[in-house]
User: What shape does this take?
Amino acid sequence: MPLQMTAAQVRRKLVGALKLDLVGPGEELGDPVEVLPQSPWRWYLTGFLAPLDAAPEQRGNVDADDELSLAGEAGLDDDLTPEPAAASKQRFFPSSIGLSILLPPETKMLKVRVRWGDYRRDGDERSETWRRRPREEVVPLAVPERLARAQEYKSPEVTACASP
Amino acid sequence: MVQPVGGFGLQAGLAAGSRTVSVFLVNRRTPRELDSLKDESFAFQTELELHADTPFLSRPDARGLLSDEWDENVADLQYRDVGEYAVGHNVAADGDATCVRTCWIPEAQVERVAPAEMRDVTLRMDELAALQDGADARAKLMPLVERYREWIRGQQALVPDTPAKRQATGTDLLNRAGVVMLRRFCKSGGGHDIS
Assistant: This one.
């Protein structure tokens, strides 16, 4: 690290710190095999996919309510009107992310690279720790010439699919 | 999902046979029933990245071309070189013609607008406050009109020939600039004192 950082370097560092804080370790940031003292779902704010078949209480942010009332009790906010909780209750975490692109007629192949992190719980009830394992899958996709139905590619644990 | 772009895509300048492709990453794992272990079936820091054996096509944004709103028309002209190569679903997207990826926290840089450097023009207020007379004002300020005229001439060569609407927007903008330039020219050239 140079002694004197340029404005751009400082900004880069701040953006990186924010991403590390809200999403977690990425390609260049953080420790890919980090150990968290708390469930990663509580530790991170975004970037994760819940199982499609998970029960609604596992897919929603059930804590949002508590956080709001706690913030109200702290009395730091001048606005005494309580925030409506209904919207936060309705928040569901996504189970999928996607990308749409435009391809010229001559494109035959797409290479899909998927990266994510799995966390396994160690320790007993009293001292939980969560260890990250970096995961990566590369799926070659042949692009059909005409309108195509969903093609699904099952990874042992995560599924990548090209779908309608 | 693979779909032909259809007639509208052709109008917007895409080659026949172009296709849109959507790729999704879906977490179809079996959820852990124990709440204390549910995170094990979640996927964290998810990222989807696509490479193709040919460059991706830039997504035409026809909104500004079809619109009758002046602001939209001007934006269509001024941002005609800015390409969008991917659209994200449930997440933001970023990338270029060779590689696109999802990003949970999108980034954008706002470009700084720097005024052009102008030779022989007096812009400092304390110097302008001490102008001797009309002739002095003309000598110190007319170069501004001259530079402006040169700039307009340079811009005229940059107006795109197609599509017709974009060309019309560019021509219209430069005509308006020409009106401003003439107004300044007549005022100072016509002998009015600049006060």
Summary: The CA atoms of residues 123 and 129 of chain A lie 6 Å apart. Confidence is low (pLDDT under 50) at residues 64-76, 158-164 of chain A. Chain A has two domains: 34-49+96-164, 51-95. Helices of chain A lie at 7-22, 40-43, 56-59, 64-73, 86-89.
